[in-house]
Amino acid sequence: MRPCSTAMHLLLRCLRGCGRHSRSRLPRRLRQPMSYMKLIIQSLFFNSLTNSELVMDCILEPVFWIVEVVTRWFGMVFVILVVALTSSCVFIAYYCFLPLILQTYPLGWIIWHICYGNWIIVMIYFHYYKAIKTPPGRPPKMKTDVPFVAVCKKCVIPKPARSHHCGICKTCVLKMDHHCPWLNNCVGHFNHRYFFSFCVSLTLGCLYCSISGRNLFIDAYNNIDQIRHFEAEKQGVPVTGIGLLIGIVPSDTPAGKVYSQPPYTYKDRMFHKSVIYMWVLTSTVAVALGGLTLWHAVLITRGETSIERHINNKETKRLAKRGKVYRNPFNYGKLNNWKVFLGVEKRSHWLTRVLLPSGHTPYGDGLTWDIYPLKKDMIPV
Q1: Does the predicted TM-score (pTM) go above 0.90?
Q2: Which residue pairs from 372-380 have beta carbons closer than 8 angstroms and sit at least 24 positions apart in sequence?
Q3: Which position among 166, 172, 180, 186 bears the catalytic label?
Q4: What is the tens place of the pLDDT at every residue in 127-179?
Q5: 180 in active site
């Protein structure tokens, strides 16, 4: 028994001892209700399945409920925020970066920047739209011949393999990975590829802007710093002739000194601030989203989802105590896992389905997982 169960035993022992001493003192009419109350307390605080994890889940249940409600309410706000931030960076890239590229870069680099920049923009918007609009897939609510591994306690419907219940969407999802607030949608069987492709495209786009705009960022930061120093040292207004403008020009200012106008216009300041804003935003997103993308790439290589990673770890530890080895039944090998995930059936699909926007559906229907060939060489690509 775990420490939590030991504490339950001690509590029940104390209640039992108190009950023995007070049983003779209680009237007969109160003995039966007291015995019933003790039985209710025992059923609430102790059973053979009680452990520290169950107690922590019960304690954190209000927190989970608050997170689910907030995520459900602000889902569309997160989507609008993603679109607004992405569109602002695209606008700055066309308005600030592109004219400089056309003026200063050689022809080869101009072609590279135009082709790569427009390709990454199309990939980002296409996969984000598809990830939002594509339903992740839900098991049938009516009785079918599809094999299932459990019955959902909340939906009260059969759950096929790799299906899990989403507390935010209030339904079971096929091959559920997680609920993404930035998509306002669950990531499941039918939109998992769109989600991952969006993460990869956005990471590559942010890295492109961060690396390409590094020198511009340094120049813009230095120019903004010079503007601040100029405004801090400025002590009056432009004055011509001899004499002092009382109340504006300090008395220690040499008579007849002429103050020059600021070297930067409002347009120049907005240009520098836009460059700084874009570089900081894209660099931050590249680091944060890049780590998330690498983590999902590892999961795809292993043939598992985020939820299955947790379940497989628990099963591995449980079987290890018995001297057994747990093997993931959905792991088809590193390369084959990627082929299944991306929907690659022939060599040309690496171009048409991976490097270019594609709306093809994934393998299978998400209900059964015995449709793939043997693991040795599933797709000879």
Answers
A1: no
A2: 372/332, 372/340, 375/331, 375/332, 375/333, 375/336, 376/333, 377/336, 378/332, 378/333, 378/336, 378/339, 378/340, 379/336, 379/339, 379/344, 379/345
A3: 180
A4: 999 999 999 999 988 877 888 888 888 888 889 999 999 988 889 999 999 99
A5: yes
